[in-house]
Each structure stands twice: as C-alpha cells, then as structure tokens.
Amino acid sequence: MRRLLIALLGAIAASIVFAAPAGAQSDDEPTSEADRELVVAPVDILQVNGLFDEIVVDEIIRSIDRAVDNGSQALVLQTDSKGAVVSDERMVELMQAVDSSPIPIGIWVGPSGAHLYGAPAQLLVVADVTGMAPGASIGNVGPALSDEFPLGPGLNELRERTVGLSDARDLVIFKQRISDEGIATVTNMLDALDGYTEGDVELDTTSEVVTESGVVQRETIAVARFLKLDLVDQLFHTVASPPVAYLLFLIGLALLVFEFYTAGVGIAGVVGAGSTILASYGLAALPARGWAVALLALAMIAFAVDVQVGIPRFWTGVGIVMTIVGTFWLYEPITGTSIWPHWLAIIAGIGGTMLAFIVGMPSMVRTRFATPTIGRDWMVGADGVAIQAIDPEGTVQVGDAQWRARTNRATPIPAGDPLRVVAIHGVTLEVEPLEGAAKDYREMRHKEPQDADS
Question: For 29, 155, 284, 359, which has the most beta carbons within 10 A of its beta carbon?
Fold first, then answer.
C-alpha cells in the first residue's frame, strides 16, 4: 500500500509539472490581445510645463536619446507653456533634434486649459504627430526662428494672436485630421499615433476590439511611460517660474531684514539667504528688468529704516510704492505674451510685504527692545556693584550676571561702588547708590503731608 501511494502521488506531481508546457504555444506569434500587448513597444510621455528654459530644452533632447535607447516606439511631449526664455539659437537646436529624431515625436497641447505660445509653438513644424485638447490654445509664435524650418500658412496666421481648437483645426495647424472634440487625453493621443508611418517605422499603439454587445472600440495596447524632470532639475525649473522667483525674492529679503534685528544668526537668516539665492537664479533665467529688481531691493532698505524705530512712517510709504512699481514692471513680455506673475502671487507679494513691515516687524522690534520683566521681579531691591561708572548709564553686576543700568543724573555711581536695584525697564536696571542717593521729587511730594502731620 505504501509503494502504491507513493507511485500515485508521483503521478499527480508529474501531471502538475508538465501541465503548463503542454498548454503553451510553441510559435512566436502571440495569439491573444494580452500576449500582443507584451511585445508592443511602449510610448514615452514627457510632461513639459512652464517656460522653456535650459533645463527643459536639455531634458527634451535627453528624452529623445533615452527613448531610442529604451526601444520606445515614440516620444510625446505633453506641453503647457507660454514661451521660451532661451535664445533663438538654442530653440533652433531643439527643433533640429526633434526633426532628426530616429523615432517619431508627437506634441500634445493638453490637458484642457493648456497653452503653447511663442517659440515653443514652432515645434509643431518639426513634430511628426500633433494635437491639442479642447479648451487649449496656441499662438503668438512670432517670426520663424530659422529659414530651415518655415512656419507654413497656418502658423503664419498666428504670429501675433492665439486661437483655440476649432480655429487651429481650420487653419490646418495639425499634421493629421483630428476630430471636432480634439484630443482630450493622453489615451486619445496614443490613438492618434497609431498607424503613423515614416520610412520603415509604423506605430502600433491601439487596436480595435469587439465588446460582448458587438460594439467596436479602440483599445490601447502600448504602455505609456510618463517622464518628468528629476528632483534637482525640477527645483531649479520651478524657481525659474515668474511667480515663484518673485515671491522667493520678496520673502528672502524680508527674512534677512528680520534677521538683522534679531540676536544672532537663526533659521530666518538661513532660510532668507537660501530663498534669495534661488530667487536670484530664477530672475537671471527670466526676462526680468534689472531696474525693477533693484527697486524691490531698495524697497526693503526703505522698510528697514522705519523698522529700526519701530513705527511705520515716511520710509514705509516709500517702500510700499517701490514694491508696487517693481512688481508690476518686473518682467518683460516674450513674443507678445505677458509672463507677469499670476494675480494671486501679486496680492500675496504686495499684501504680505505691507503686512510684514506695517504690523509684524515694528511689533517684533518693540518687543525685543521692551522685553517684559516677568521673572525678574526678584531683582528689585537686590544689591550689586558697578562694573563701570554709571553716569547716567553703565554696566552693573547683580548676582552672577551683568546688566545694563542707569541712575539719576544727580547721583552718578563710580566703578566698584555698591548699589541697589530700584526698578526694571525692559532689560535695563534702574539703580541707586546704597548711600547718598538723590531723592526723587515724586517721593518727596508724597512724604511732605506725612511730615506736616507729624
């Protein structure tokens, strides 16, 4: 029985082991949609948001090389940009890289609400497949960057104006006919890529499937791999955006002014210095007017004058005017498009600066130079010794600590003489000599009636 049971278990194990190979296909041609998806090359999607700066241009060129090395079918640039802050020569280099790419390059202006303005819009000339989402807009392309890449009739109409999906389709901006609904999502963009042929290359991104109800649908079979800037590049690309550079500059300078009026170097100073450095990089990358940047810096100096006295006065008003003027004229437009900070950034910048220097900073200075005496009442009546002559101000030692002190002008205290603490004002002690102190006229007035009664 034992041998028979062992033989039976061995037969079951053998059937399990050989069951999978028996059911596998021996040919290399996939027979199902799932198998087909495994052998279809992916499509890389690079999200390009904000102005085209050196970081973005370098990343697009690197992404083309990376897509080729990784065996991707195509690279799609998902764009939302209002212009470029690099030179025309640099943009021409980018156009040449897109034009000579070994794999097809698609440009999708999306999602809804996205823009493609200025020099980046001329990439539509060299891209292989183009499209835009409903609610997106393109235009203000300016003159052609190079005779090598003429704009064509459609983009020529958009040198100084912008249009939406319907007008762009009528101007034949796109290189393939897109539906009236446009290309709403990345999935729709992959569908637009399907069947594109260039030389020996034919894109295979979607296929038709029949549902159980008999409806024919398009199904994506190419995996979309989304790419973004790495953390360091993303940081510097972000600080080079107009609202971020503007706010960082104001915050950084304000924190440095704050740190100037506090004791020692603290978190505010470190954060302020870091913010100012990052803002300087961003402003250098952007078309910022030098005089406007200088005006914002001078505004902080004007604010600092009144911060020192702890009361907002004339120089605070001068600083506010400088801040407003510097804000509204900070950036020059590019290719007919304003890159002025968003109105929320303007309100935060001007409003926050006014709040800080009208309310916050003066209160801080008054608090610092009028420190409450809570916890030091024990010193009233305590004896001490003058470290240096007090006439009427000097330094004394009470207990184990040294303090700033002042006395009545009629009773100066020489260095080394004993004294007594009679009051505390902030961090300054009011003292008198142990013997021979001049009487306060208020004390004398209060004592006269008592002397008369006696």
Answer: 155
Which amino acid is located at 155 in the chain?
L
> Pairing state of beta strands 197-198 and 393-398?
unpaired
Give the CA distances from residue 173 to residues 132, 155, 245, 250, in Å, rounded to whole numbers and listed in that order.
10, 7, 34, 42
Q: What is the pTM of this model?
A: 0.70
Note whether 219 and 88 are same-domain residues. Answer: yes
Together in a domain, 189 and 259: no
Contacts of 128 by beta carbon, 8 Å cutoff, 6+ apart: 74, 104, 105, 106, 175, 196, 198
Q: Is residue 11 part of a domain?
A: no
Same structural domain, 236 and 283: yes
| Structural contact between residues 244 and 349, judged by C-beta atoms closer than 8 angstroms | no
CATH of the domain at 187: 3.90.226.10
Q: State the total domains in the chain.
A: 3
Please name which of 168, 179, 147, 194 lies closest in space to residue 41, comparing C-alpha atoms.
194
Distance (Å, rounded) from C-alpha 409 to C-alpha 414? 12
Span 29-41, pLDDT tens digits: 444 444 444 568 9
Q: What domain range is 381 assigned to? A: 377-453
Question: Mean pLDDT over residues 302-324, rounded?
Answer: 87
Question: pLDDT at residue 441 above 50?
Answer: no
Output DSSP code: residue 356. I
Q: Determine the pLDDT at residue 4.
A: 38
Between strands 105-109 and 74-80, the pairing is parallel
Residue 221 shares a structural domain with residue 286: no
Query: Is there a domain that residue 168 lies in?
Result: yes
- CA–CA separation, 140 vs 161, rounded Å? 5
**Residue 88, Cβ density class (10 Å: 0-12 exposed, 13-18 middle, ≥19 buried):** middle
354 φ/ψ angles, rounded to the nearest 5 degrees: -65, -45
Helix (H, G, I), strand (E, B) or coil at 79: strand
DSSP assignment of 80-95 equals EBS-B-S-HHHHHHHH
